[in-house]
Amino acid sequence: MLQQTLVLIKPDGVERGLIGEIVKRFEQRGLKIVGMKMVHVDNSLAGKHYTESIAEKHGKRVRDYLTNYLTSGPVIAIIIQGSSAISIVRKIVGSTYPGEADIGTIRGDYTHASKEYVKKNNQGHNLIHASENEEDAKKELSLWFSIDEIHEYKLSHEEHIY
Ligand code: CDP
Ligand code: MG
């Protein structure tokens, strides 16, 4: 099924100069970028992105930490489109805790903090966010992009991939 999903290169990814490396991973898989911009996130947007549900999942401390982290520097917001794009992008991104992420994933190739370290220090600098499911993708896309910022075009390799 053709899907669109939201990817954010978080402030650590931008500050480490990894924008190109990260974008390349999606392009080389044949996925299509249909929206992209640099955003300096304010508290309101960070709070809407990391909603109460993240506090329910990981605790209030993690939510506070996350909103501070996301507003600490510019973020690159990207819409990626493709067949089953939501789960494929999650696979390319890798596991939440850097030390558990497989080699070959973005998190596994560029980060390594253990789960214990992340939980103790609230240092979830794992470079990137990707929508988890269709419902989240829909909400997040409308939060980060307006309709006129989404661009339809044909990739030259589409006929080979599909
Ligand atoms: O980003 P992902 O969907 O893999 O994980 P999540 O469970 O939705 O958590 C969102 C983000 O919270 C993670 O990407 C980490 O940056 C951060 N996090 C954290 O800092 N400390 C934790 N104990 C758990 C998550
Ligand atoms: Mg998540």
Structure overview:
The structure is a single chain. By secondary structure, the protein is of the alpha+beta class. It has one domain (2-146): Alpha-Beta Plaits (2-Layer Sandwich). Helices cover 47% and strands 17% of the residues. The chain contains 10 helices and 4 strands. The chain has a 4-stranded antiparallel β-sheet, with helices on both faces. Helix 4 packs across helix 5 (60-70). The longest helix has 11 residues, at 60-70. It is globular and about 50 Å long. The N and C termini lie close together (12 Å). The model has no long low-confidence stretch (mean pLDDT 96). Cytidine-5'-diphosphate binds next to helix 4, helix 5 and helix 8.
Q: Give the tally of β-strands.
A: 4
User: Uncertain spans, ≥5 residues at pLDDT below 50?
Assistant: none
In CATH, what is the homologous superfamily?
Nucleoside diphosphate kinase-like domain
The ordered string of helix (H) and strand (E) elements is EHHEHHHEHHHEHH
CATH class bucket: Alpha Beta
Strand order of the largest sheet: 2-3-1-4
